[in-house]
Amino acid sequence: MKHWPFHIALTLATATAGLAIPQAVLAQAPVAAPGTVAAEGERPRHSNKWRIVFDERAKSDGTISFRIWPKDGAPQQVDVAVIDGQSENRIASSARDALRVALGKGFHVEVDDGEDVLVKARRGTGDFGLQLIGNTARDVDIKLRRE
Q1: By the 8 A CB rule, do 68 and 78 touch?
Q2: Domains along the chain with CATH numbers
Q3: 49-55 vs 141-146, strand pairing mode
Q4: Do the beta carbons of residue 82 and residue 140 sit within 8 Å?
Q5: ∠ at Cα 63 (66, 44), nearest 5°?
Q6: Whole-angstrom distance, CA of residue 120 vs CA of residue 128
Q7: Residue range 98-125, pLDDT digits in tens
Q8: Which residues contact 121 (CB under 8 A, 6 or more apart)?
Q9: What is the rounded CA–CA span in Å between residue 96 and residue 109?
Q10: Phi, psi (5° rounding) for residue 81?
Q11: What pTM did the predictor assign?
């Protein structure tokens, strides 16, 4: 059986919709880079405060997805809509707003230095983990730091 590079397999799959493609070809799909997308059951380290750093202007519409892990609870996904051309400061404001709504009164969420978002557990909430699980907005760089 011939093994095709992934980009050729994807082109073939698109061009030949409905035709059978060998499993060996489909199994060569690339794996996401570490730090880009977190595995479903992978629990991050916990902290009472996290910093999300946004860099660069968006070159496409997209969605940035985070997963918040309470220390002893089920994870919660928070999605942030991004619009083509949006600045890092505007993306940070959108992320702040989405996180505030999703997390509620147990957390304090604020923009810091224009392009950073701080997410802090309020007294009694407990430490939590934060993961970046997806980003489809082209050229937007995102870094997470425990503080």
Answers
A1: yes
A2: 1-30 (no CATH), 49-146 (2.60.40.4390)
A3: antiparallel
A4: yes
A5: 15
A6: 9
A7: 999 999 999 999 999 999 999 999 999 9
A8: 48, 49, 106, 107, 127, 128
A9: 6
A10: -80, 135
A11: 0.72
